[in-house]
């Protein structure tokens, strides 16, 4: 039998790939299963136009068979199989994808579920195997061939025997080395969990014989050993199901299964977008903030699937920082992936999806503000600080998105209110949105400066979080109403008359005030008569834009 050689470039490419494209060895199984799924898909698409071909779902599946004694792992499918030429072209020429060609030919029909496109995934088998043997019987010719290779130094093809149409790939698993053990790829439980992780939503059954021990039915305290063929993948992902068929519990179970958090989600958003960009997503707003949320350790991101196959665990680009608390996943068929399918090629699609997702999250939060205020307050307790940072960061670029998501305690009934709540009940003569800063609501209430504003019957927002005033400075206005600190020198409410009186007093007692100023040198910049005090003899106030609280924070900042 003549041994054929890989072309020189192919040889290098293979070595390069085996050693560098993939970050994890375990993905070889994802690649082989994806190929099997593609092969079954091809029969499915053929059956759509070929009357002689009946697609009976029960006959199409994928089997994963570890054999510890012979140290082999077999992946078997009942797909379309490969002819001698297919074996030569698709497995002998690296970076040649029969699946991509198929997809192109069948563009008119909906071949869009097919996963393969780069023609390299198959070779990932060499990350864990010394020898790869492919026995395939083609639907087209009904003949079987065997392809075999030990990696970089070529392959052989010869006629073979195989009962049914389809492909069987036998991996001779590598021996353990000093640094690396390959035994795990022969362990049922390990294989099962790899399948669950990457291939749970492959649309054909993935079957495995599993041994175990379980309580015996109908008898107490007794156990039995079993060995049975199990159906490992769940096939239809929850996000492809109809929202109407799903209960809150289904979503909560998914949240727990995926380990998105130990809490329960406060809210879920199920998106099925069919417009300019096609994707499905399930997003969760968690109930509690993770312990590391406000630290550098926290990594935002959503799981990203391409056509039901997991591509990335945490795709950060899908979420803006200010919605970094959102958990969940996105599945899209319109992503262009890079060769390892671990990253995206172009981010145009991704950007569109991200924009879309952002607006879904925003409108969900807004609808909670409107219709489920209790729930929203709970959310705001956990993530309100994030929203305020969001307003403040990037020079307020996102303030329009976020301003209606802010809550502050108001002097009225000491309840949390939105800026819209506040503005919509402002009396007509009120010019500004008033706020007071302090360590706590109690402290703020004792501030002499609040008296005058409160006396007018105006509401005051209590800023107790150090970021509050910074965020508001970035906003500047809300619905054309400027923000005004109760301790600013111009409150916009003294009548002209009283200001004149104060000016007169300042003139009259000029020397006294000058003496007081010099006594308090370095502590204050001036002492003045004021008409703003009611029950307090004296108060501190600031000139210009910066409040006392902000000054404190600014002074405390390292410069
Ligand atoms: P890709 O899947 O990106 O096309 P692969 O290297 O994974 O690249 O596979 C190369 C080609 O080999 C596929 O496009 C397909 O034509 C063929 N192939 C691989 N595995 C199978 C299989 N189990 N059944 C039928 N054809 C297969
Ligand atoms: Mg492939």
Task: Name some characteristics of this structure.
single chain; 559 residues; alpha+beta; 8-stranded mixed β-sheet; 6-stranded mixed β-sheet; 19 strands; binds adenosine-5'-diphosphate
How would you describe what is shown here?
By secondary structure, this protein is α+β, with helices and mostly antiparallel strands. Helix content is 32%, strand content 21%. The radius of gyration is 34 Å and the shape is elongated. The mean pLDDT is 87. The structure holds adenosine-5'-diphosphate and magnesium ion (MG). The site of adenosine-5'-diphosphate has 22 residues, from helix 2, helix 3 and helix 4. Adenosine-5'-diphosphate (ADP) binds next to helix 2, helix 3 and helix 4.
Count of distinct strands: 19
Which class do the helix and strand fractions yield? alpha+beta
List the ions, cofactors and other small molecules found in this model.
adenosine-5'-diphosphate, magnesium ion
Our count of helices gives: 16
Q: Biggest sheet: strands side by side, in what order?
A: 5-4-3-6-2-1-7-8
Bin the helical content. 25-40%
Report Rg.
34 Å
Give the termini separation. 77 Å
Mean pLDDT: 87
Main sheet summary = 8 strands, mixed
GO molecular function, one term: ATP hydrolysis activity
Family: Belongs to the heat shock protein 90 family.
Pfam family, one: HSP90
Subunit structure: Homodimer.
Brief digest:
It is found in: Cytoplasm. This protein has 559 residues and is an alpha+beta fold.
């Amino acid at each position: 039998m003549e041994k054929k050689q890989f072309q020189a470039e192919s040889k290098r490419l293979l070595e390069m790939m085996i050693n560098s494209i993939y970050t994890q060895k375990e993905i070889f199984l994802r690649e082989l299963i994806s190929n099997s799924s593609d092969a079954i898909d091809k029969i499915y698409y053929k059956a759509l136009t070929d009357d002689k071909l009946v697609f009976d779902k029960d006959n199409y599946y994928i089997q994963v068979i570890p054999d510890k004694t012979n140290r082999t792992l077999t992946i078997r499918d009942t797909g379309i199989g490969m002819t001698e030429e297919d074996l030569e072209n698709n497995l002998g020429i690296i970076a040649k994808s029969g699946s991509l060609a198929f997809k192109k030919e069948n563009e008119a029909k909906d071949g869009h579920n097919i996963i393969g496109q780069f023609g390299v995934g198959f070779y990932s088998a060499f990350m864990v195997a010394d020898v790869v043997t492919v026995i395939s019987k083609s639907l087209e010719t009904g003949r079987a061939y065997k392809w075999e290779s030990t990696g970089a130094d070529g392959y052989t093809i010869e006629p073979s025997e195989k009962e049914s149409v389809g492909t069987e790939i036998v991996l001779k698993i590598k021996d353990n080395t000093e640094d690396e053990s390959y035994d795990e790829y022969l362990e049922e439980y390990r294989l099962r969990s790899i399948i669950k992780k990457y291939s749970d939503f492959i649309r054909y059954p993935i079957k495995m014989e599993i041994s175990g021990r379980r309580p015996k039915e109908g008898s107490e305290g007794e156990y039995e050993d079993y060995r049975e063929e199990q159906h490992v993948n769940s096939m239809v992902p929850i996000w492809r199901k109809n929202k109407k068929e799903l209960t809150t519990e289904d979503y909560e179970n998914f949240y727990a299964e995926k380990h998105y958090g130990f809490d329960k989600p406060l809210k879920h958003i199920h998106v099925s977008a069919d417009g300019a960009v096609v994707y499905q997503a399930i997003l969760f707003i968690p109930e509690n903030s993770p312990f590391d949320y406000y630290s550098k350790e926290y990594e935002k991101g959503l799981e990203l699937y391409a056509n039901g196959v997991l591509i990335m665990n945490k795709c950060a680009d899908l979420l803006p920082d200010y919605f970094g608390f959102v958990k969940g996943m996105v599945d899209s068929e319109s992503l262009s992936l890079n060769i390892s399918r671990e990253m995206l090629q172009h981010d145009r699609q991704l950007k569109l999806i991200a924009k879309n997702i952002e607006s879904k999250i925003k409108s969900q939060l807004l609808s909670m503000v409107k219709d489920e205020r209790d729930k929203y307050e709970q959310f705001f307790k956990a993530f309100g600080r994030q929203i305020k940072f969001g307003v403040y960061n990037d020079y307020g670029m996102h303030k329009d998105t976020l301003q209606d998501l802010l809550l502050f305690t108001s002097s009225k009934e000491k309840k949390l209110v939105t800026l819209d709540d506040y503005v919509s009940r402002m009396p007509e003569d009120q010019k500004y949105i008033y706020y007071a800063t302090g360590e706590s609501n109690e402290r703020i209430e004792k501030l002499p400066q609040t008296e005058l504003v409160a006396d007018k019957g105006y509401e005051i927002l209590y800023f107790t979080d150090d970021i509050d005033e910074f965020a508001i400075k970035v906003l500047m206005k809300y619905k054309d109403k400027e923000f005004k600190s109760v301790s600013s020198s111009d409150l916009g409410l003294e009548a002209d008359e009283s200001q004149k009186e104060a000016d007169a007093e300042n003139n009259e007692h000029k020397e006294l005030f000058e003496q007081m100023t010099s006594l308090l040198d370095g502590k204050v910049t001036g002492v003045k008569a004021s008409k703003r005090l009611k029950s307090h003899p004296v108060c501190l106030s600031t000139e210009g834009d910066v409040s006392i609280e902000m000054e404190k924070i600014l002074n405390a900042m390292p410069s």
